[in-house]
Amino acid sequence: MATTEQRDVDPRTAVKSLRQALAEAGIVLPSLGVDCVHPGLKLVELGRVRADVAVRLAEAVRRGVRA
Fold first, then answer.
1. Contacts of 10 (CB under 8 A, 6+ apart)
2. Predicted structure pTM score
3. Residue 47: CB partners within 8 Å, gap ≥ 6?
4. Quick one: pLDDT at residue 66?
């Protein structure tokens, strides 16, 4: 269950933070953005990516988990 602190994160701030972190890993998600359809839910739209980008993203997450 999400804490109040987690629910209060501005989705634009989250997108900016994620975009910067992904860039540091050499990964670009072209469709990354704020979901404007349901603003009250504060959703981040990750979008669609090519399969090779998904694999690179998975590898970056695994490296982070191991660290």
1. 42
2. 0.80
3. 29, 30, 31, 32, 33
4. 84
